[in-house]
Amino acid sequence: MKMATLIAKPTPLRTYLFGSLALYRDQQTQAYSLRLDARRLALVAGLAFFAAYALIVAAGYLWLRQVRQIEQVGFFDVAFFRVKNVRREMAAEQFARAKAAWAAKDYGTAFVSFTSGLHNDPDNVDGRLQAAAFLSAAGATDRAITLLEEGLTRQPASRPLLEHTLDDLTTNGRDAEALKLLHGQLASQLSGPNGSLLRTYEILATLNTDGPEAAQRLLAASPDLRTTTRSLLVVARVLWEAKKPVEAISTLQDYVKAEPDDFLGYAQLADYQETAGQIVDARRTADLACARLPGQPTPRILRIGVLKPTGPEEVRRWEQEIISYLKDFAGKPEAIDELANLCGREGWVDLARMLYESGAGRQQDVRMLAMYYSDALMRRQQFTEARSVLAEIDRQTPETGSTFAVLLWQREVVAAAACGDRDDARDQARRVAAALRLDPTGMEVIRRRFARLGIPEAVAELSPNPAAVKPSAPKKS
User: Fold this and answer.
1) What is the largest CA-CA distance in the chain?
2) Region at 70 (left for phi over 0; alpha for psi -120 to 50; beta for the rest)
3) Nearest of 49, 53, 93 to residue 74 by alpha carbon
4) Helix (H), strand (E), coil (C) string for the chain
5) φ and ψ of 251, to 5 deg
6) 221 vs 224: CA distance, rounded Å
7) Which of the residue ranges 64-68, 200-204, 290-294 would you say has the lowest mean pLDDT?
8) Order of strands, edge to edge, in the sheet holding 14-16?
9) Closest-CA residue to 414 (of 432, 402, 396, 437)
10) CA 100/CA 98 separation, integer angstroms
């Protein structure tokens, strides 16, 4: 019978890394050796990696939640390194912070938050639109449009981006840019799902640049736009400027029936009816807008405008409508501003002065009310009085080049030129040029306006290469 010889496993003198490495000594040779336990080492390495991973994830999660205060970030987003999700959630928080800062008039924080949000989520259409609106309100129209155009390079089929970009271009005198965009980057979409929208803007931009004849040719090539609800406002304007008032008014009536909640249709229809001498119809349209959109100031402003007296017997109703409006919207400064704006356009000096003085009595910022008062004065050819009001506003306005400041200085150019003070007109035009030095397109729009008004000093200051211009008598309106 064989006897099994049992050999005891040697005992290590010392172990390292939780037993992954062991130090042994040979009893016969007295030599030392270091042995590796691969399985144990793999286990230890795995546990160490997991601990480090958990520590990094926890630190990242806490940093995002506590330091950056991004509450929408989930733990598993960080744990599984969902970078795109994390950046998107960070951007949403930053956009919300930007809107809050903008509302609180903390413009520096708003700008930084909007910029950071777009950096983290450049495909966020709502955030991009909000950022563009903020830049436009700050007077950086050129930068706002660039921001929208950058969005179109990423999402060329986004309808909200298309509408806002082309709206900004066609309402700020940048119709040539709109046509360049339509015939270039967006040319392939003219026959696609957004084709009717883009062709409508093409007609609008052409109308603004080349006149009604060119616009009519484009409209004739796209007969489907006459039955496309979204296009009817532009179709009506083309017909109106082509001296076809009956067709234009009929088209707008169709639009109001199709889109009864869109105030723009009522406003354009009432304007055309009033201009065509259809006062009763214009007032009926304003009443319809007020009934359809109750509680909103803009329809009421429209009704006040079309109720302006054409005879002594109509004064009382007009005054009652104003009194009712002031009673209903007394606590809303923006509604009072809308009424003051109407006074400026219509030349209602007494009402504009009353709104200005009542605002001053409430110790609010009355610069906008004062500017509309100056508009009413200039409408009535009272340029000396208007210039005095504008000078008072100027003393209260910081030299920041804001949108308000640029609007103010433009009015000062007109008032100074109308009073024959060409040196002051030139000085105010220089201020406009300095504020718009980074917006050459916007400067060109204003330059063309001064050219139409016949103010060569201002035209020269806003030209790319200012040169001496022989003075000529400015127009009074």
Assistant:
1) 139
2) beta
3) 93
4) CCCCCCCCCCCCCEEECCCCEEEEECCCCCCEEEEECHHHHHHHHHHHHHHHHHHHHHHHHHHHHHHCCCCCCCHHHHHCCCHHHHHHHHHHHHHHHHHHHHHCCCHHHHHHHHHHHHHHCCCCHHHHHHHHHHHHHCCCHHHHHHHHHHHHHHCCCCHHHHHHHHHHHHHCCCHHHHHHHHHCCCHHHCCCCCHHHHHHHHHHHHHHHHCHHHHHHHHHHCHHHHHCHHHHHHHHHHHHHCCCHHHHHHHHHHHHHHCCCCHHHHHHHHHHHHHCCCHHHHHHHHHHHHHHCCCCHHHHHHHHHHCCCCCHHHHHHHHHHHHHHHHHCCCCHHHHHHHHHHHHHHCCHHHHHHHHHHHHHCCCCCHHHHHHHHHHHHHCCCHHHHHHHHHHHHHCCCCCCCHHHHHHHHHHHHHHHHCCCHHHHHHHHHHHHHHCCCCHHHHHHHHHHHHHHCCHHHHHHCCCCCCCCCCCCCCCC
5) -65, -40
6) 9
7) 64-68
8) 14-16, 21-25, 32-36
9) 432
10) 5
pLDDT tens digits, 399-449: 777 788 999 999 999 999 999 999 999 999 999 999 888 788 888 889 999
Q: Which residue has the tokens 């060119």?
A: 214
Lowest-confidence range among 13-17, 112-116, 381-385?
Answer: 13-17
Quick check: 74 pLDDT over 70? Answer: no
Cα 399 from Cα 382, distance rounded (Å) = 27
Least confident segment among 3-7, 279-283, 305-309: 3-7
Whether the Cβ atoms of residue 161 and residue 152 lie closer than 8 Å to each other? yes
* pLDDT of 89 above 70: yes
Q: 371-383 pLDDT, tens per residue? A: 999 999 999 999 9
Name the band, by pLDDT with cuts 50, 70 and 90, for residue 38: low
Query: What does the angle CA 122 – CA 123 – CA 128 come to, to the nearest 5 degrees?
Result: 70
Instruction: Say whether pTM exceeds 0.90.
Output: no
CA distances in angstroms from 218 to 201, 215, 239, 406, 409, listed in the order given: 11, 5, 12, 36, 38
CA-CA-CA-CA torsion sign (45, 51, 54, 60):
negative
- Of 465, 469, 378, nearest in space to 422 by CA: 469
Q: Convert 173-210 to b/e letters by CB count within 10 Å (16 or more is b).
A: bbbebbbebbeeebeebbeeebebbbbbbbbbbbbbee
Q: Are 181 and 146 in contact (CB under 8 A)?
A: no
User: What is the identity of the amino acid at 372?
Assistant: Y
- At 115, the amino acid letter reads T
Q: In whole angstroms, give the CA distance from residue 170 to residue 168.
A: 6
Residues 453, 414: contact at Cβ < 8 Å? yes
